[in-house]
Structures are given as C-alpha cells and as structure tokens.
Amino acid sequence: MIKKFKLYILSAAVALSVTSCLDKMPEDGIPFDESLQTVSDVNLAVIGIYDSFKSAYLYSGNLTLLPDLQTDFVYGINGNTNIYGEIWRWKDIKPTNTDIEAVYGDLYTVINRCNFLFDRVDNVRKKTNDDKELDKLDQCCGEAYFARALAYSELVKLFCKAYESDEEAANELGVILSQHYQGNEEMKRASLKDSYQFILDDLERAAELLKLEEDFDPSKDGVLYNSIYFNEYTVYALRARVALYMKKWDEAIEYSTKVIESGYYILSSCTQTASTGVSYYKYMWTNDSSTESIWKVGFTVNSYGGALGRIFANYDFTSVRPDYVPATWVINLYETSDLRVSTIFQSFTTGYSHGLTWPLLVKYFGNETFTSYNILHVTMPKVLRLSEQYLIRAEAYVQKAQPDYGKAGSDISKLRLARYASYGGSTAMSKDNAMDVIKKERVKELYMEGFRLHDLKRWHDGFKREPQDQSLDNGSSLKVEKDDPLFVWPIPQHELDAPGSEIQPNESNK
Which 3 state secondary structure label does DSSP give 151? Predict the structure, then answer.
C-alpha cells in the first residue's frame, strides 16, 4: 500500500510541472478509493508528509535561503556560479522564475498530502474499534493539521502583503485555500484575512489533537526539545509567530510565553560545553542537536534534503569558492563579547584567482556526521527555535497598545546571557530605541534563516547595498524603497495560465 501511495503522490507532484499545483489527479494515478485502508496506512501517509519537508526547495534550500539572499544580508562574489542570481539582483525576479515556482509548488505538495489524508481518514476511522488505534488516528490528523498550517504560513509570508489589520486584510489577496485532495475547489485566491484564519483554525485543531497528557514527564516520556515530530508546543511556537505577523500582540505574548515557560526548552549556551571545546550553541549547528530546537527537519545520512551551506562555501576538500559572502554591516553588528560570531562566521582565503579573504558563513558548513560520509554542507533545518520565541515576545511587548519595555528588555537580556561571554546587566529599552534593538537582535540571531524579507516587509523598511571587496557590480549597488512590489513574490505564471484558473496576480507579476 505504501508503494502505491508514494506513486500516487509522485504522479501528482509531476503533474505540477505542466498544470496547476492544485491539479492532483493524473490519468496514471491509482483509484482514490483504493488508498489508505488501515491505521498503518494513515501513519505511513504522515511519514510521507514529514518527508515532504525534506525537499531541497523548502527549509533545506530555497525557502530558507532566498528570502534572506534577496535582501541585504549577502553579496554575490566575482566568479560565482550565478546560482539564484535573478533573486539576488532583485529587479530580475519574474513570475517564471523556477526557484520561486519550486517553493510554491512544494508547499502545495505538503498541503495536498495533508488533504489526501483528511479525505480518506474517516473511512479508516469507521472501520476501527480499538481505542489506541483511534488515538493514533487523532494524532496523525493533528500532525497533518499542523503541517498544513505551517505550509500555508510560509505561502502567505512570501506571496502576500503584510497583515496590517483585520479590516485591511479582508480586502487584500491571500492564497488559494484547499481542504480536499479530491474535489472541484475554486482556483481562486481567498482574502488575506481568510487565509490567516484558515491557518489559525488548523492550529487550533492541531493543538487539541496533539495535546500532551496531563502527567507528561520528560524523564519518562521523552524530552520535547530537538524533536523531528510535531507536538502541542510546536503548535504554540508557530501560533506565536503567526500572531506576530498578524500584529496580534497579546496573542503573540500568550503563545510565546506558553513555550518559554513550559520548561521543556533551554537556550543553548555559548559558554557551557556540550563536548570538549564545543559550546552547546555551536553543537546545535555542527551536530544538529540542541535543547532549544522546538522542531527540526529530521535527516539521516541515507535520507536528507538540500545542502544549505553549499552556496556559502562550495568546499571541494581543497578550497572554498563561495557564491555569496556575508555583508560587512551584519558582521559589524555583533559586539566583541558576542560568542555567536565564531560559530556563524570564519575567515577563509577563497580559491578564486582574486584570492579574496573574507569571513564566510559557516553555521551551515555541515553536520559532522554527514561530513564523515563525504556529504558536505548538509545541516538539519531548525524551523522553530526557543530564541525566536524570546524575540517574538520582546517585539510584541513593545508594539502593544501599552508597551512594556522592561519585560521586552528582560527577554533580550535572557537571550544575550546565553550568547555572550558575559552580559552584566539588563537591556535598557525605551520608545526611542526598542524596535532598533529588536531588529538588530533578529538579524544577529536569525541570520540566513529565512526571516529577513518578511521582516522588512512587515516593518515597512527598505534597504541599501554598498559594494564590498570583489562583490558583483550588478546588484552590489542597490537601493530598495519600503513597500517595493517585489517584497511580495510573484504568483508563478503557470498558476495564472492553468486551465480554469481565476487566480489574481500580484503587483510583482506585472
């Protein structure tokens, strides 16, 4: 059955290349009614959903890299391969860009897999009498609801305008909402408000179905940190992020607090060692293991996704020839006592003829276990981390109607205490400096993790690039004004042209 199921999904994915991502029933697909007959089949379908997040076009590739690469975080270097060149140059981004198409398509692949499960699970439930198996079905549905919410949260982040208010969002374009794998749903974009509400509804269902037992004990039932599976607190972490994006400050505080005060996660220290000479913070990147990781995409040496670090090193066991190098202004943000620097950056002399020596991004250089198998630059994406929750809560504290600068400063201090060699006091925050402090801290903590484009969009900030040593002429001198149309990615052209499509384009499509 699992073989048939995989073939069925594969056929649907192949169909994406010539039709819409919502066309899911190719002529060579197996009959829908013959699929997912048992609880075991449903569980295997959930495994397939997790596997879909391994795509090199999602968190271990395009979805993480492109939003940050498009902005002011890195520079193309003379002699590079021009990979992602259209994205980095900004003005060359077109609705036919295959890198953007791949993100859009693979996020809908996740959604389609979830919908496939939802359309078949009731049939399995009717034939199931065992309470444990019924509980298993509930858990599987909870995981699928969360996966669908996560995929949609990324779609609205990239392909929609920022959420300003409920009233404005009701009149802005959202995404195509799909609840069924089989059916004749409209190929039409919902409002941004309805799109976010769809995400919230899925997260509400997921939270209920993935709720931990009241007597849950990590010492007996297993720790929640460093998990490759979804659980109740994974839901809360995403719920906090979504609330921040919706400017629902009190909700962002509520849900980030649930995660922070749960006691299940601990910030990875830059001063305490996980092994000889390796801090817990560094171990998070070199070995993909961390007490602050809420959910990561699980890889093995036999089953992994893309290589996040390749474009920053292209190491061939002899030399490094990076396509992109960090921006000087980013490196200069870190204070002398900030120990993140030595884990995130390392100076190399490149193998190019110009011999540029530069601090390269090395936090994605690769999991040491994978490297021992000659698998380079592969690291497990840490999609939800505790540090982000502190940043979410701090921003919400200062943005709410009655700001609490003291609590916001306390959250930034807690993060810095874990990252600095020493941090001897509180972080002074006020109306005049609070958002500047938070913006800089998000850069330092979440560098090249896929947040920058949306952060600039929702803050209504522009950016400017200044040429650096050996940076490409075309793209190094770039000034982007706030609210530029390309802060919102264009809807892929094949979606607009698909038979029966009523999909409205973005301004960036024009």
Answer: helix
Say if residues 296 and 304 touch (Cβ distance below 8 Å). no
Inter-residue contact 43 to 133 (CB < 8 Å)? no
In this structure, the dihedral spanned by the alpha carbons of residues 287, 280, 150 and 206, taken in order and rounded to 10 degrees, is 110
SS3 category, 89: coil
Nearest to 299, CA basis, from 373, 380, 383, 385:
380
9 pLDDT exceeds 50? no
3-class state of residue 279 by DSSP: strand
Answer positive or negative: Cα dihedral of 151, 152, 153, 156: positive
pLDDT digit string, tens, across residues 63-116: 999 999 999 999 999 999 999 999 999 999 999 999 999 999 999 999 999 999
What the block records as the tokens of 164 is 């300003």
Question: Would you tell me how many other CB atoms lie within 10 Å of the CB of residue 375?
Answer: 15
**pTM of the full structure:** 0.94
- State how far Cα 422 lies from the chain centre: 30
Angle, CA of 296, 341 and 487, to the nearest 5°: 60
CA atoms of 244 and 253, how far apart (whole Å): 9
Cβ proximity of 436 and 418 under 8 Å: no
- Those residues whose C-beta lies under 8 Å from the C-beta of residue 10, and which sit 6 or more positions away, are none
Q: Which of 301, 277, 271 is nearest to 288 (CA)?
A: 301
What is the spatial distance between Cα 69 and Cα 72, in angstroms, rounded to a whole number? 7
- Nearest partner of 376 among 319, 424, 458, judged by Cα: 319
Beta strand pairing status for 278-279 and 273-275?
antiparallel
Does residue 34 surpass a pLDDT of 80? no
215: exposed, middle or buried (C-beta count within 10 Å: 0-12, 13-18, 19+)?
exposed
Contact (CB, 8 A) for 103 and 158: yes
Amino acid making up residue 217: D
Does the pLDDT value for residue 30 go beyond 50?
A: no
Alpha-helix runs per DSSP H in 382-463: 386-399, 405-419, 434-445, 452-459
The four Cα atoms 321, 325, 328, 330 give a dihedral, to 10 degrees, of -140
Distance, in Å, from the CA atom of 382 to the CA atom of 296, rounded to the nearest integer, reads 4
Q: Which residues pair with 465 in a beta bridge?
A: 478
Q: Which alpha helices (H) appear in 127-229, and where do they start and end?
A: 131-159, 166-169, 192-209, 218-221
What is the spatial distance between Cα 419 and Cα 270, in angstroms, rounded to a whole number?
5
Which of 383, 223, 362, 387 lies closest to 286 in space, CA to CA? 362
Angle between helices 131-159 and 452-459 (to 10 degrees): 60
| Alpha-carbon distance values, 250 to 92, 125, 254, 256 (Å) | 39, 38, 6, 10
